[in-house]
User: Fold this.
Amino acid sequence: MGWKGTIRSLQATSRRIERDAEKRRRELQKQQKAYARMAELEQAEYEVDVWNNYIDVLQSVHKGCGDPVDWLSIARADAPVQPVFFGSKEAQARQAVQNYRPGFLSRLLKIDRKKKQKLNEAVDVAKKDDQDNFDSLYQQWQQDSADHEQQTGIATGILDGEPRARINAIEFFAPFDELSELGSSIHFCIDEISGVLLVTLHVHGGHVIPTEIKSLLKSGKLSVKKMPVGKRNELLQDYICSCVLRVARELLNLLPDDMVIVTAVDELLNTATAIRKSYLFLVWL
Assistant:
């Protein structure tokens, strides 16, 4: 498998086993366009379905994870082959000109010149098509070559134990896009003394965790109630644990590290002082 196939395979693997909750979330997003046309009871059922799915997503972040990455294969992957200009369409068009032999009727009706002219014009069109096709292939080769150089450079750095290469690998594979979609953010750095990867997960629970509970009444109508503080804190705890497990698993599969330190941080409101303050929730080694 060439370098590009290897990279695509690894990227696809990291997203191959999509959780049922995540699949359902994307299906519901597609249905949102038809929401305005739904009847009241259908809208209520849809909103509850979306709410239940969102809770499921928050509690199952850890269930999705990519397979281990073979950095040696990436480092040894062959470079993309530079395209060669063949001009095959032009050659075929010129051959058609050479093979043209006007018949008696064509000469009699004096249409042989027009036919020959069209064949010559077809040569020009074919020549342009060949050039356009080659230009496209060449531009793609230039991009692929740049990507290959970047990716093999990352792989070589990983194998040589370069600290920055680990950060570059995380940025390239972007295994935490789902967390960003939910509203959380992640920052990375390398401890200068131990060389251990330090990860800070900013939960942003105030934005991620819902404040309401949606359900259907026996009548089929929508019920919206304020989520109790205890329930919300329980959901926040589940989400934090799920995220930390996901981050740790992704990094240990992506990098040849034996240990990472993941710290979950969130900013909460102190009801006694009315001041928002950052709190450390969990550390995973």
In short: The chain has three domains: 1-58, 75-160, 175-284. The chain is about 60% helix and 15% strand.
